[in-house]
Design brief:
With 62 residues, the chain is mainly alpha-helical. The chain is built from 3 helices and no strands. Helix 1 packs parallel to helix 3 and helix 2 crosses helix 3. It starts with a helix and ends with a helix. The model has no long low-confidence stretch (mean pLDDT 92).
Length: 62
């Protein structure tokens, strides 16, 4: 689950650092994320992912 993974990473610096490089890739977009069931996530979920991504990047660079 992309949201669960990001919630954990936002509180766990080693995982945040591991994810930071991928989140900063030029071709990364929260709109292109798929759920565990290979379905596109909703716009609301994409907004949540974006918010958590920002938290992860702050945590990784803290």
């Amino acid at each position: 689950d992309p949201i669960f993974l990001r919630k954990v990473a936002s509180d766990y610096p080693p995982l945040a650092k591991a994810m930071a490089g991928r989140l900063m890739d030029d071709d990364y977009s929260a709109d292109d994320i798929y759920s565990f069931y290979d379905e596109p996530i909703s716009e609301e979920q994409a907004d949540t992912v974006r918010r958590l991504d920002r938290m992860i990047l702050r945590r990784a660079h803290a």
